[in-house]
Amino acid sequence: MAYEFTKEDLKEIEKLKARYPEVKPVTLPALWIAQNRFGHVKPEVQKLVADTLGLPEAHVHGVATFYTQYYKEEKGKHVLDVCTCLSCQLCGGYDILEYLEEKLGIKTGQTTEDGMFTLNQVECLGACGYAPMLQVTNDNYVNNLTPEKVDKLIDSLKNGEKPEYEKIRMPQHKNT
Amino acid sequence: MPQVIIDGQAYEFEGQHKLLQFIQDLGKEVPFFCYHPSMSIPANCRQCMVKVGMYVKSRETGEYEIDDNGNKVIRWFPKLQTSCNVDVADDMVVHTQETDEEVRRAQKDNLEFILINHPLDCPICDQAGECPLQIQTYKYGPEGSRFEVKKVHKPKRVQLGPRVVLDAERCINCTRCTRFTEEISKTHQLTITSRGDKNYPITAPGREFDDPYSLNTVDICPVGALTSADFRFKARVWEMNQTPSIDITNGKGCNIDLWTRDNLVLRITPRFNEEVNDHWMPDEGREAYRIFNENRASKPKQKLDGEQILSSWNNAIATFNEQIEAHDKKDILFVGSPHASVEENYVLSKFANLVGLNPPVFTTHIEKGKGDGFLITDDLAPNTNGSRMLGFNELDEKALKNKVKNAKLVVLLSDHLVDRGVLNADDLDGKYLINFATNNSETTKLADLVIPITTAAEHAASYVNVDRRIQRTLPAKETRYTNRRLDLEMSEGRLDRYGTNFDNWVTEDNKVDCLPLWRFITEAANNSGLDLALTSGREIMEEISGNLASFEGVSYEIMDEQGGIQLSPDTKTAKTK
After folding, report:
1. Structural domain boundaries in chain A
2. Phi, psi (5° rounding) for residue B227?
3. What is the ipTM for the molecules in this complex?
4. What is the CATH number of domain B3-113?
5. Which residues of B touch A43 (CB under 8 A)?
6. pLDDT digits over A8-28, tens only?
7. Burial of B122 (0-12, 13-18, 19+ CB in 10 A)
8. What is the 3-state secondary structure (H, E, C) of B21-49?
9. Which of A50, A77, B562, B572 sits in a 20 to 30 Å window from B237, CA-based?
10. In this predicted model, what pLDDT tens digit does every residue of B347-370 receive, in sequence order?
């Protein structure tokens, strides 16, 4: 399959180019545009980005492989990054991960057969206050997870609804 | 003059210097891996850490603040600094590992980190013996490892390109190789993939590292991560000896080192010369080691009844003289060569002069469009300018062909004219061809008399490059008639020094049965009663510089001292003062 940017994508990239004194910094946003378009940045897509920007392929490859958020292989429609770092682990991060494994019938790192979900285990996402938590496809966080909340999330994702951004107040200390 | 105090000693300086380079130039040492004087400074190996501070001056009076003990107060930088990217400044105080325990400790701990995932496979690693990581670990590193967990595994034996093999586990991610492709060769073929402890240099997926300068990354790799596909596992560094020489595969004349063991050239690496090639050389030039070892013309050959048979030197000399005498002078053509040195060409022309012939002719060996403006030139011969400056008649290929057609005796100096398509077998039909040759080729096959001569690896001789810089080679390989222990210009490796001819690592066959051109010509001339005595390249160069204005002031001593001599462009064809 040959990958190609749409006209809108190209226009967007041109706009980005105008924002920087040189082309190199556009690598990151251009890779995002590509990932949003194709769902991944496999080597063919990296080449497309490099050719579009006129940058060396090796450079784009280096950037794409540096960040885990760029998917170097095809993933499910929704990527669930479950945090199992310290705070989440203490609050049951592994329970959530195992619950998801059971529910989706896949192991960590795998994608469901229908291509809907990919399950990942990740390190701290900086939301220790609302542990355990997970992130959906490099986007919104779902916090204070319970099995019920996970069920709801999976259902809504299956219905095509993405989780909303959740505003949580930090615990407040009463000054006496 | 501003001054910097390094390890308690004051040094004056002028202009801008980076601290690491400044310390090195003083002949002192700070360990480092990623820094390279010809490339940008990323300061990512963190090995060159030193303690840096400044004397404190009062803002009001401009005077140094003095502490209770009467010493100048030093305001230390809050952290240790990587000396590679610190600019030397006036009143700067530097403590290196030589005087400061903290620096020593920092360097040691940094090395411990670098070594955490390093396989420590020095016994089977090609880099061992010339490995900065190995050397510096011995000098500054920890005594053992405290790392008891499994090391990270990465790809091994990755064929990055036709000439370079990667062992990612050995890599310390100094980025010298990627910076080389970005800044020096500008092919941008390498990048560091991934991050953290999983990163290593690689090409873009599906791409080959086929950079024409790719092997330079092997030289600058401070560990054994990048190795030469060709040289891999051939020899340990300490078995070889290293002889400075000149690249003879193109017109640039890159300064090189020939690495020999048992009289075989095993590899060629670039030698620093700011005026010519900096630290680099093209991959093609490294392939030239084969010229010195393989397919050599050894022992004279003579055609009898249409078949070449081995002959003796006495016979070759006699035949050579007979042929010169037997032919009418106008039927004899001497062809010089841009592939041969100044000395060889000069000897040929001197002999031609002695027997009353016209000066030799030659034709250039130029492939238009091959050059890249860096170290690869259109000119495929190392000494085109040298032949010109000797006053040889420069002919284009067609004119040379005609000249050969009209001659009856052709004396050809080490230029494979048939192989490179200037002449063909028909042109030489019915003529007597004497070929002074280093290697066997289609040209030597057609010759009636093949006289094997020494290559650039076996004699001291000089070459004038495309920019008119004259540089010289040193003998690296013994012939049947030379001996390292007697020739003071030859280097002696361990095996040479301690081996005897009865050791199983000494191979007599690696010594080629050939003579320097001047020796053969001298013997031939003396044999026919001519007065000629040319014994070495050095003497011949003395004679040339005395006789030819274009070579005035050239001597081996000055060439050695200054890394070659830039000849003035004006004296292009000037001859005899």
Report:
1. 7-66, 78-158
2. -130, 160
3. 0.87
4. 3.10.20.740
5. 204-206
6. 999 999 999 999 999 999 999
7. middle
8. HHHHHCCCCCCCCCCCCCCCCCCCCCCCE
9. B562
10. 999 999 999 998 999 999 999 999
